[in-house]
């Protein structure tokens, strides 16, 4: 074959070969006399026609010691040492032999398939050195799925792991990240994105948001995971890809639970019966989280020695049997907004449990929870509160009934009398689901601006917007409504016509663009002015 593709190598005719032929006044067409030998190369490498004879059992102990010492001095774990000597059965110091080269990346072919002698599987010893028996040789995988809370939980787990010293690769609806670097922006929650992370040699642990679409389209990007987190299963994406009922959707989400290895953990929401039922789908261990310490599933699970994480007397608390550890007060965890965002507490419970099961210390978990601040940098599109002086902007990605209801409960705790929503339904949802989205929005806002999504998802222009308005009017017939063609137009109008004390809620279809528009407006409205006289010792 060519190069190293086979045991024997085809000899190339090069300048060296032609020079040797010319010196003997021969050509490639010359027929040699019987018994005559002509060498086409001046070297004896296998790649130039040399042969390999195994002499392993004949090497003198002195030579073995010498070769090992040379490798250690240079600092090589694997070394190929080229020797020229009459034989290796006597010390080189006695037979006039010498070492002419030390290779850091030696070939194995002459050992695996010698021309004469016993074949030696040297590759096996190298692999055993790199991966000793019993040593983990896989990147630990934490997969996160569910209808709502996937992205925030994924980001929080990754943040905790990074703070503990790991180089984390993680995927979200905003992009693929290695450490703190955004490798590829966009919705990257499918198997191709997962494989990109797992193939990166710098990644020490992977946290993979795993969405319904990718599972249905192409399955998972891994054969099994160490921890599979299932947040919840609610009404969303029904009527798509033969998923007609919430039970159908639960079977899709259960794929993550089934992918948990025998020594891994399925982290399940004990407050969601469809998720709790997934304990029957996994061959791994079970860990539960709940907003109620007295949840019957939690009580029975921990009494049997199972691990759980609950919201207990204002604390995020780990439970196992009679053992109880309070990790941190919820009021000290920025992501929960002082406990006002109950759905964020659920995300915290799941992330805490996953990190603990990954052998992260309580101290590192606590630091991670208290330093993870909801912002356009840490949690883009997830409860991003931005102060504009005399009014406040909230950017969120709520887009299904469960997400809207959770956001409604959060917003109801704000004292603002004027609450304006910039909203727009998702075209590939069922008509009734889009109307329900509008119904919940009517209960949430005093004024509404309805815009069209960039991607109509099979709908005619204006069709989705009309269904949203039908839902709004069914609850509040007189609610003030303004209609706009697209998101940027609607957001710019809302920002340019604020009222004092207003809470402007932007339910974004394009999170990064919405953040960019709001940030640009804020910079223009409140430019940074540094007064040097306010700085000590600067005049």
Question: What can you tell me about this protein's structure?
Answer:
It is built from 18 helices and 19 strands. By secondary structure, it is α/β, with parallel strands linked by helices. It folds into four domains: 1-50, no CATH class; 57-137, no CATH class; 141-371, UDP-N-acetylmuramoyl-L-alanine:D-glutamate ligase, CATH 3.40.1190.10; 384-525, Mur ligase, C-terminal domain (Protein-Tyrosine Phosphatase, Chain A). α6 (150-163) crosses α12, α6 (150-163) packs across α13 and α15 (431-444) packs across α16 (463-475). The mean pLDDT is 92.
Structure characteristics:
4 domains; 539 residues; alpha/beta; six-stranded mixed beta sheet; eleven-stranded mixed beta sheet; 18 helices; UDP-N-acetylmuramoyl-L-alanine:D-glutamate ligase; single chain
Total individual domains: 4
Strand order of the largest sheet: 6-5-4-7-3-8-9-10-11-12-13
Classified by CATH, the class of the largest domain is Alpha Beta
Helix/strand structural class: alpha/beta
CATH topology of the largest domain: UDP-N-acetylmuramoyl-L-alanine:D-glutamate ligase
What's the mean pLDDT score? 92
Supply the CATH architecture of the largest domain. 3-Layer(aba) Sandwich
Write the layout of secondary structure elements.
Elements: H1 15-23, H2 61-74, E1 80-84, H3 92-95, E2 98-103, H4 109-112, H5 122-130, E3 141-145, H6 150-163, E4 168-171, E5 175-178, E6 181-185, H7 191-198, E7 205-209, H8 212-218, E8 225-230, H9 246-258, E9 260-269, H10 273-276, E10 285-290, H11 296-303, E11 307-312, E12 315-320, E13 323-329, H12 342-357, H13 362-371, E14 384-387, E15 392-396, H14 401-411, E16 419-423, H15 431-444, E17 447-451, H16 463-475, E18 481-484, H17 487-496, E19 503-507, H18 511-525
Parallel strand pairs: 3-7, 3-8, 4-7, 8-9, 9-10, 10-11, 15-19, 16-17, 16-19, 17-18
Antiparallel strand pairs: 1-2, 4-5, 5-6, 11-12, 12-13, 14-15
């Amino acid at each position: 074959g060519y190069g190293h593709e086979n045991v024997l190598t085809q000899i190339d005719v090069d300048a060296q070969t032609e020079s040797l032929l010319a010196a003997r006044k021969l050509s490639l067409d010359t027929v040699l006399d019987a018994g005559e030998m002509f060498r086409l190369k001046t070297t004896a490498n296998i790649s130039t026609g040399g042969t390999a004879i195994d002499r392993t059992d004949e090497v003198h102990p002195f030579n073995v010691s010498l070769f090992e010492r040379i490798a250690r001095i240079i600092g090589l774990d694997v070394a190929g040492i080229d020797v020229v000597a009459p034989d290796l059965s006597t010390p080189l110091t006695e037979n006039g032999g010498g070492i002419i080269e030390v290779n850091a990346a030696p070939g194995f072919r002459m050992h695996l398939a010698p021309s004469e002698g016993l074949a030696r599987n040297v590759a096996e010893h190298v692999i055993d050195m790199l991966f000793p028996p019993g040593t983990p040789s896989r990147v630990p995988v934490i997969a996160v799925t569910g209808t709502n809370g996937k992205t925030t939980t994924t980001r929080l787990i990754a943040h905790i792991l990074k703070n503990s010293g790991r180089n984390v690769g993680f995927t979200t609806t905003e992009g693929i990240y290695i450490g703190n670097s955004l490798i590829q922006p966009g919705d990257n929650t499918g198997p191709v994105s997962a494989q990109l992370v797992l193939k990166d040699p710098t990644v020490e642990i992977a946290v993979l948001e795993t969405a319904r679409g990718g599972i249905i389209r192409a399955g998972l990007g891994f054969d099994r995971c160490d921890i599979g987190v299932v947040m919840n299963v609610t009404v969303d994406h029904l009527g798509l890809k033969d998923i007609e009922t919430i039970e159908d959707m639960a079977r899709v989400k259960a794929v993550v639970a089934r992918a948990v290895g025998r020594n891994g953990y399925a982290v399940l929401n004990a407050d969601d019966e469809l998720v709790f039922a997934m304990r029957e789908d996994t061959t791994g261990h079970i860990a539960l989280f709940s907003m109620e310490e007295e949840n019957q599933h939690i009580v029975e699970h921990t009494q049997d020695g199972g691990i759980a994480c609950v919201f207990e007397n204002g604390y995020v608390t780990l439970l196992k049997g009679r053992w109880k550890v309070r990790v941190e007060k919820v009021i000290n965890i920025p992501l929960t907004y002082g406990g006002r965002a109950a759905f964020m507490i659920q995300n915290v419970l799941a992330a805490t449990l996953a990190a603990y099961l990954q052998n992260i210390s309580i101290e590192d978990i606590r630091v991670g929870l208290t330093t993870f601040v909801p912002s356009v940098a840490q949690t883009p599109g997830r409860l991003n509160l931005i102060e504009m002086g005399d009014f406040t902007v909230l950017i969120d990605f709520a887009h299904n009934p469960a997400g809207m209801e959770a956001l409604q409960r959060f917003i109801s705790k704000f004292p603002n009398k004027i609450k304006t929503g910039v909203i727009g339904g998702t075209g590939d949802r069922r008509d009734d689901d889009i109307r329900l989205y509008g119904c919940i929005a009517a209960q949430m806002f005093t004024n509404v601006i309805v815009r069209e999504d960039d991607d109509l998802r099979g709908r005619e222009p204006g069709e989705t917007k009309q269904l949203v308005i039908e839902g709004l009017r069914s609850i509040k017939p007189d609610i003030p409504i303004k209609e706009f063609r697209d998101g940027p137009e609607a957001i710019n109008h809302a920002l340019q016509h604020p009222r004092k004390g207003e809470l402007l809620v932007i339910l974004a279809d394009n999170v990064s663009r919405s953040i960019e528009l709001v940030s640009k407006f804020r910079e223009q409205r409140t430019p940074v002015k540094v007064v040097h006289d306010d700085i000590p010792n600067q005049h």
